């Protein structure tokens, strides 16, 4: 009872007025990183479509889809996505001094983990919705891949 009122007053006066601007500032790099994940998935699937349209090879298509499944664990391809979130390091330094925010690296690492998880979910959903082995008509495969990609991105 004795701590509640001063704590409430402290939060109301010293923290709450800044929350909206802090969240907006932090969401820039986070949003940018997640957008980069989306664009990477889109690019990789487009490459699968283009390769299939050139080769019309169902075996190679299956290999490309299998390779897509490893995308979340491909540190080279995911690195540009992760780098977008590293901008939080600078933004959180100011918060660290003003609001005693610690464990900045943990915030960045968790955000990057969520990005990887999002990519895992995207490629898994893609695989579930599109199975090259069930495609009887190779003329419609590219169209089907595009539709599945758009569904996953939705």
UniProtKB/TrEMBL annotation:
Highest taxon of the lineage: Eukaryota
All residue ranges annotated as the Niban 1/2/3 domain in the record: 9-154
Transmembrane segments: none
Family membership noted in the UniProt record: Belongs to the Niban family.
PANTHER family tied to this protein: NIBAN FAMILY MEMBER (PTHR14392), PROTEIN NIBAN 1 (PTHR14392:SF3)
Protein name: NIBAN protein
Protein source organism: Donacobius atricapilla
Gene that this polypeptide is encoded by: Fam129a
